[in-house]
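Internal QA ticket QA-208
Title: Verify multi-chain structure generation after dependency bump
Assignee: T.L.

Test input:
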Amino acid sequence: DTEVTQTPKHLVMGMTNKKSLKCEQHMGHRAMYWYKQKAKKPPELMFVYSYEKLSINESVPSRFSPECPNSSLLNLHLHALQPEDSALYLCASSSPRANQPQHFGDGTRLSIL
Amino acid sequence: AQSVTQPDIHITVSEGASLELRCNYSYGATPYLFWYVQSPGQGLQLLLKYFSGDTLVQGIKGFEAEFKRSQSSFNLRKPSVHWSDAAEYFCAVGPLNTGFQKLVFGTGTRLLVSP
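Actual output:
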C-alpha cells in the first residue's frame, strides 16, 4: 500500500480546461516533489517543495503551477496544456534529512485531447 | 554533473534463474544510491538504498545490491527470479542537499521473466 495518495488516478482534459492534481502524505515528510514520466522513460523532476517553500523549478512551463498549502498536501494546477503534456505525473515525499529515500505515489495518468 | 548509466534496456531471465542488473554512476563523491522498481501503471517502489557502511545492502523482495567504489557501480541482484519480478527497474543517485533530494535516475532496465 502506498503512503502517498494521488488523485485522480486518471484525467482526460481538453487543451482549454483547467484542472488540478492532488497529492497527500501523512508521514510527516517536509519535502514533496512532482515528477513527469513519459512512457518507457525515467521520471523527470518538475518541482521540489521543502518546508512548504518552492525550492526547485526545473524550468517547467507556466501552464503547470504547483502549490503546497500545508506540509501534507501538494497540488499541481494545470491550464492550457498541450498534447505533449500527456504523461504519468508522480508525486513523492521525503524526510528533510538527505539520507532518507523518496516515497512515491501511484501517479495520475493525464491525457490531453 | 551527476549521471547514472543502466546499460541494459531489456533483460530476459527464466523464472528461478539468478538476476543481475547493472548500474554505473558518475559523481564527485560517494553519493546516496537507490534502486526503485515500477510495475505497469504504478508508482516507484524503493527496493533498497546505500548511504555508507557495509557495501552489500539487503532490500525487500529478496533483492540485494553491492556498492563498488572502484568501479562506480551499484548492481542489483536476486538469486532466484519470480514471475512477479517482471517490471521496470531504475537506479538513482541522490546527491546531498539541504532538506530534500534531487534524484538523478538511470534510463531504466525492463525485466522480462520467461516461464
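Spot checks passed. Chain B has a mean pLDDT of 92.
Status: verified.
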